[in-house]
Specification:
Pfam families: NmrA. The protein is of the alpha/beta class and about 270 residues long. It contains eleven helices and seven strands.
């Protein structure tokens, strides 16, 4: 494990994804993990961790990030690009080596997918901003992971893997990773095996669900994103199966393939 990237700050550590990432880094003795949170946040974190609570205007950011090697952002709000830009600027001044933006989902480089999710533009804006800052010495890694598997099967996220950092020194690119490459039918079969019963299956019109999802989101109701995310990750050409056009980074990251049945059984049994 490289000692160059040891001190890690997680932003958005109270969310579902942030909680998982925080737990994994906290459990790894090779890293010193801390948390960056707003003063206005009511979130409670493990007592043994250092928590830097900054004002909504982030005047204390520079001091909070001094001595940190990596900043991982899991901010998910629509204004995340504005917030992340402020953190990026302070990270550069503080001498942070790498910034991991709040991607962790669909491939935002896919133009067809982004037409469905225009509110994800903040993700692209952040990456473009990071690119503009490369000459100032900050490296970045954006993780394309698809939807968290546990959310896909409507279960809470269980911390299994943290974003690997050590093998990625001096990088400026998107990273594709997935623990397994399976279809919906394979997931269904695994769930039936884990529960020892046959499931009732309802088939829906993907195009109709996409249309409803887009119309719902246009009204400001982002519950419509659920059906649209399913569409993007299931229909060919929208970047859901990014193995079609780009090699996975699993080997580079040291990510081992996982057994679908074992993971599903673990979720079912809690």
């Amino acid at each position: 494990m490289s000692s160059a990237l040891k001190n890690v700050t997680v932003v958005g550590a109270a969310g579902k994804l942030g909680t998982s990432i925080l737990a994994n880094f906290d459990a790894d003795p090779n890293f010193n993990v801390s948390i960056l949170s707003r003063k206005s946040s009511k979130s409670v974190f493990p007592a043994h961790l250092v928590v830097h609570r900054v004002s909504d205007e982030y005047p204390e950011l520079l001091e909070a990030l001094k001595g940190q090697d990596v900043v991982i952002s899991t901010i998910s709000k629509a204004a995340a690009d504005v917030q992340q830009k402020a953190i990026i600027d302070s990270a550069i001044k503080a001498g942070v080596k790498r910034f991991v933006p709040s991607e962790f989902g669909s491939d935002t480089r896919n133009e067809k997918a982004m037409k469905i999710f225009p509110f994800f533009k903040h993700k692209l804006n952040t990456v473009e901003y990071l690119k503009s800052k490369e000459r100032e010495g900050l490296t970045w890694s954006a993780f394309v992971t698809g939807p968290p598997f546990e959310l896909y099967v409507k279960m809470p996220i269980q911390p299994r893997q943290r974003p690997p950092l050590a093998p990625l020194s001096n990088t400026h690119y998107f990273i594709q990773k997935k623990p397994f490459h399976v279809s919906q039918n394979q997931i269904l079969a695994s769930l039936e095996k884990a529960t020892d019963k046959k499931w009732d299956v309802a088939y829906v019109d993907a195009e109709e669900k996409k249309k409803i999802g887009i119309e719902t989101m246009k009204k400001g109701d982002f519950s419509g994103a659920i059906g649209s995310i399913r569409y993007v990750n299931s229909v060919k050409g929208y970047g859901g199966d990014y193995t079609e056009y780009e090699e996975m980074s699993n080997k580079l990251l040291g990510v081992q393939g996982e057994d679908l049945d074992k993971v599903v059984r673990g979720i079912v049994e809690g």
